Structure formats: structure tokens, C-alpha cells
């Protein structure tokens, strides 16, 4: 009975999330709100809906918010732990080290879940925005706000002030020793890092178009390399996006005043 109630709660949350995001997407774009504001609003709706769907059933059952996810991950970890221990010729010291890593991973599950939900919500928000704009290309009767080419996309200054405030607030909470500070810090890192990473990609695209004659081929090669080496490219792209926000390299290169979407 409890399982069915939890499933019902998650289904309602997902349905409301889908409906709210569809309404918000249509209203914001037809009312000529900026694409950045629209994407952020959609991401917030998706994050709230995903959090409710994943965590509210456990809360209603009198458990922790991440109890269901924690239990599922602990089962997987237990399987790998048992498999390794039973493996023939397993070194005892190495086995102890692996067990320590698995225990650390198990403790970090709530923190990783929050960050994963934030990333997934951001991707869904941006993806829905782009798909709706693609739909509107074939339906000219729907008038929506224009969108700048990706290579010219930049973060609004007002957004940077908000992200900076979030970052400072999370650091203060971390220093205070608050129980949930680690999860909050990881979430804020995602919220701050994703826009800067996107702006870094926009700068890369700007440089490709500016310097390459065969733009399509150069883009394909560059983005494939970034995808393959994303773990290494992630931080440089964020730094590139941060430098662009401070020094407005693209606007200076074109001799234009800095702009924001």
C-alpha cells in the first residue's frame, strides 16, 4: 500500500512538473521574457518537481529525504562489495581499501543526488527551451522573443550577482558547520558552474567561427573532443566563461559594447 502511495505521489509530482513547465515556457516566451530567464525558470520548475518525485515519498514515509535512493545505492554497493570479497585471490589490504572507498561513496550519496538533480534539471530546462523554439520555427503564428546566436550568448549581470550571493551564502553555511551544508555547497557549485561552462562553450564557438573557414567540420571535431575529454575540459571552460564575464573578450574583439541577453 505504501509503495503504491509513493508511486502515486511521484506520478502527481511529475505530471504537475510537466504541466507547469509547458505553461511557463509558452507564457514567458510569448511575453518576450529573455531566453536566459526562461531557461532558469524552467530549470527551477524541473528541479522542484524532480526533488518532490524523488524525495517526498520517503519524507511522507517518515524516513529521510534520500532514504529510497540511499537504499538502492547501498544494494548496488553491497553487490560489488560481495563480488569483490568472493573473488579468488583478492588481496586483503586491497580489499580493505576498496571497502573504504565504497563506504565513502555510500555516505556521499545524498550530496551527489542533489548535484545530479540540479544538473538534470538544468539540461531539461535548456533542452525544452530549444525544442520549443525549434517547434515555433515551423509555426510562424506563435510570436516569441528572439534568440541570439549561441556564440554571442552571455550571462546577464543581474544573474551573476545572484550566483555570487549564492556562493558566498553557501560558504558561510559551510563554515558554520550546518548539517546539510555539504549538499548545499555542491548544489551551489553546480548552479554557478553550469552557466559559466555554457558561456565558455559560447566563447569557444565564437573563436571557431571567427578563425575557421570550414566552420561545421571544426565545430564537430572540437565538440567531440570536449565531450570525450569533458572531465579535463570542464574546469578550463568554466574559467574561460568567468574571464569572458569579467573582460568581455568577444565584445572587445568586435569593437562593440558588452551586451547581455
UniProtKB/TrEMBL annotation:
Keyword set, alphabetical order: Membrane, Transmembrane, Transmembrane helix
TM stretches of this protein: 6-28, 40-60, 112-136, 157-178, 190-209, 221-243
One Pfam family here: DUF2232
Protein name: DUF2232 domain-containing protein
High-level lineage: unclassified sequences, metagenomes, ecological metagenomes
Amino acid at each position: 500500500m505504501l509503495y503504491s502511495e509513493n508511486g502515486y505521489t511521484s506520478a502527481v509530482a511529475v505530471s504537475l512538473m510537466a504541466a507547469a513547465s509547458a505553461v511557463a515556457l509558452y507564457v514567458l516566451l510569448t511575453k518576450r521574457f529573455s531566453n536566459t530567464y526562461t531557461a532558469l525558470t524552467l530549470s527551477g520548475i524541473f528541479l522542484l518537481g524532480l526533488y518532490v518525485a524523488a524525495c517526498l515519498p520517503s519524507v511522507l514515509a517518515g524516513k529521510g529525504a534520500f532514504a529510497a535512493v540511499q537504499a538502492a545505492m547501498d544494494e548496488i554497493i553491497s553487490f560489488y562489495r560481495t563480488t569483490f570479497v568472493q573473488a579468488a585471490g583478492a588481496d586483503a589490504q586491497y580489499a580493505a581499501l576498496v571497502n573504504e572507498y565504497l563506504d565513502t561513496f555510500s555516505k556521499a550519496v545524498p550530496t551527489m543526488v542533489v548535484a545530479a538533480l540540479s544538473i538534470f534539471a538544468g539540461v531539461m530546462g535548456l533542452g525544452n527551451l530549444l525544442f520549443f523554439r525549434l517547434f515555433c520555427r515551423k509555426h510562424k503564428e506563435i510570436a516569441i522573443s528572439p534568440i541570439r546566436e549561441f556564440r554571442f550568448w552571455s550571462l546577464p549581470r543581474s544573474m551573476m550577482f545572484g550566483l555570487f550571493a549564492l556562493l558566498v551564502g553557501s560558504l558561510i553555511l559551510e563554515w558554520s558547520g550546518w548539517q546539510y551544508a555539504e549538499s548545499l555547497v555542491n548544489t551551489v557549485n553546480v548552479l554557478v558552474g553550469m552557466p559559466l561552462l555554457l558561456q565558455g562553450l559560447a566563447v569557444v564557438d565564437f573563436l571557431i567561427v571567427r578563425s575557421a573557414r570550414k566552420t561545421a567540420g571544426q565545430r564537430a571535431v572540437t565538440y567531440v573532443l570536449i565531450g570525450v575529454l569533458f572531465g579535463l575540459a570542464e574546469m578550463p571552460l568554466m574559467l574561460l566563461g568567468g574571464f569572458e564575464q569579467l573582460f568581455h573578450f568577444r565584445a572587445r574583439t568586435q569593437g562593440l559594447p558588452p551586451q547581455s541577453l
